[in-house]
Amino acid sequence: MSIPKTMFEKVWDEHVVVPETDDTPAVLFIDLHLTHEVTTPQAYTELRKRGLKLRRPDLTLATMDHSTPTRTEQVFGGVPIAVDSAAKQVKQLEENAREFGVELFNLQDSRRGIVHIIGPELGLTQPGKTIVCGDSHTSTHGAFGALAFGIGTTEVGHVLATQCLLQRRPKTFAINVTGKLPSGVTAKDLILAIIGRIGVSGGTGYVLEFRGECIAGLSMDERMTICNMSIEAGARAGMIAPDATTFTHLEQAPRAPKGDAWLAALERWKKLPTDAGARFDRSIDIDASTLVPMVTYGTNPGMVAPITGSVPAQGDAVFQKALAYMGLTAGEPIRNVPVNNVFLGSCTNGRLSDLRNAARVLRGHKLAQGVKMLVVPGSQNVKRAAEAEGLDRVFLDAGAEWRESGCSMCLGMNGDLVPAGQYSISTSNRNFEGRQGVGARTLLASPETAAASAIRGRVTDPREFSSN
Amino acid sequence: MSIVNIRSRTVVLPTSNIDTDQIIPARFLTSTTRAGFGKNLFADWRYDSAGNPKPDFALNKPEANGASILVAGRNIGCGSSREHAAWALQDFGIAAVISTEFADIFRTNCLKNGLVPVLVDEKTHAWLLAHPQAEVTIDVEQSTLSLPDGTTVKFPLEGFARYCLLNGVDELGYLLSKDEAISSYEERAAYQQTHR
Prior knowledge:
The structure holds 2 protein chains of 2 kinds. Chain A is built from 17 helices and 19 strands. By secondary structure, chain A is an alpha/beta fold. In chain A, strand 3, helix 2 (41-50) and strand 4 form a beta-alpha-beta unit. The N and C termini of chain B lie far apart (40 Å). Chain B contains 8 helices and 7 strands, in the order E-H-H-E-H-E-H-E-H-E-E-E-H-H-H. The longest helix of chain B has 10 residues, at 179-188. Chain B has a 7-stranded mixed β-sheet with strand order 4-3-2-1-5-6-7. Chain B is globular and about 60 Å long. Classes of the chains: A alpha/beta, B alpha/beta. Chains A and B meet through helix 2, helix 4, helix 6 and helix 12 of A and helix 4, helix 6, helix 7 and helix 8 of B.
C-alpha cells in the first residue's frame, strides 16, 4: 500500500523533472502556458537577446485580453484602439507570436477572450495538468483538478525557453465546505466568505483544495469562480477534484482528447482525487448552508460583510484608511450603499451562467436613474452564446452597455473606467484602491447582487427579486 | 549582478496588505520594456490629481531621498502577479524590502530581479516601523539584518535564492543546463501533453 497522497501531491510528483534538494528547487514541467499581451513583451525581448527559441510552441497559446478595447468599433470596425500604448502591446504580441511560432487568437478572432475563460472553453484546461500564465488569476484552472498558478514575466521567459519552472513545493490547505448553498447565495458569495474568514494572506504558501459535498454539487462555472479567487486569499493555487461534472464539460470541448485518447485520459483523471487518509498541512470547515450574499466594503477582498450585515464597528489604521477611501462609516449597514456603476464580467464572473444569472434578476427592469452598467462577456464565445439566447437584449433593454470580451473594467487598463469617487458594484475579483480607476470605490459581489443593485441604485439583496 | 551587502537608511510605509496595484497601477503596465517604471511607483499615493508630489507621502519626504530599503506593513505585494511592481521599486532605487509577510508571487518576482525580500519577526518590524530613516545593514551571505544598536536578526533566504543573489547567477541559464533531463521527461510523459 502506497502512502496516501493529496491531489496536489499527485500532480506535483508527475511533473518533477529534477527533484528538489536542500540547495536547489525542483525543476517542474509545465503542460500548458497561456500568454497575453501585457506580461510577455519583456520575456520575448530576453529570449531574443539570448538567441533562444521557444521550446514548446505546441504547449503555448496567446490571446489578447487585458488592454484590449471592448467597443465593437475598435475591435471590428477599423476604428483605431483609443489607448495608444495598448495598441502598441497588441501589435507587439502579434509580432512576437509570428516570430516565435505561437498560436495567437488576435483581436478579431472568434475564439478570443479572457485567457482564463478560453482555456477551459477550448478544453485545453484539463485535470492533472500544470498550467501557468503571467497572471495571478491562473488559479481559475484549478477548478478542473489542474495545478495552475500565476507567474511573473521573468518566469514567463523561463517557460518559453525551457517549458519548466524552478519551484519549491508549497504546503496544502483543505477547505472543507459542507452543506448546500441556500437559494440566492452563489459560489461568489462562498469564496468571498472564505476569504473573509482566512484573510487576504491566509493562503500564502499553500495550495488550497476546496472539498466537500457543497463543492461536489457545483457546476464548472461555479468551481472556476471559487478557484479564481484563491489568489485573493494569497494562495499559490486552488484545486477541485475532477468528477463527472468535469468530464461532461470536457467531453464537449474542441481541444480535449478524443477517441482512445479520451478514454486513456479519463483513466488517468479518475486517479487524481485526494486519497482517503491523505494529510493536509492545514484545514478548515465551512458550512455553506449558513451563508448569505456577501459584499465587500473595504479595499481588499477580505474586507467583506454579509449583505444583511454592516461595515464592522471598529478596526485598525488600515481599516480606517479603507473606510475613508470608500466614503463609508464604521457600523453602517452594507445594504443601501449607493451604486453609480455596475460591472458584470471578468475571469471571476464573465461566463455564460453568470450572464444568465444576472439577466434573470434584471429581466423586465430598468437600471435605476443615473446608474451605468457595463456588461462584458468573458470571451467572444460567451458573447455569441449569450446573444443566441437573447441575454444581450435583456441588458440593452435595461439600459446597460453590451461590449466585446476582455478584462475591461476589472482593472481598467483599456480605458473602461469608473470615475473618481463613484461607487461600482463589480462581479470582478479586486476592490483595491484605484483598481477600476483613480479614486473608484469598488464593491465586489455576485452577478445576482450586482443586477439587483443596478435596479435599485443601491446595494440590494438579490433575494428580494427571487420571484423572477 | 551580485548582491552581497546593502547598507542604507530605511523609508517606512506601515500600511499592511500593500497590493501590487498600489505599487504600480495597471494603467502604467502598457510599456513593452522593463525600464522607467520608477516614476510611477506608488503613483496614486505619491501624486495628487494634478500630478504634483504629495508632500506627506513617505517616499516624497526629503529624508527619504537616497533610502534604498523599504520597510512595509504586513503582507506586501498581494494581488496581481505583475513583475512591474519589482521593476518599479528597483527603478526607483529600492534594493530591499522588509516586512513580516510577503505575497508569494511578489516575493518570487523580487528575487528574480535581485531585490532582496527580508522577512522579519513582529518585534523587529515594530521597531523598524517606529524608527524611519534607521541606518540598517542587510548581509545576504549571512542572511542577517543589523539594526543601528548592533542587534542582528536572521531572515529566511532559501539556499538557491541566496546563491543566485550572491553570485549574480541567472536562473534561466541554470534551467537551460537541465536540457537533457527536460528532454528525457518529455519523452517519458508524452502522453500527458496536449498538442494543438
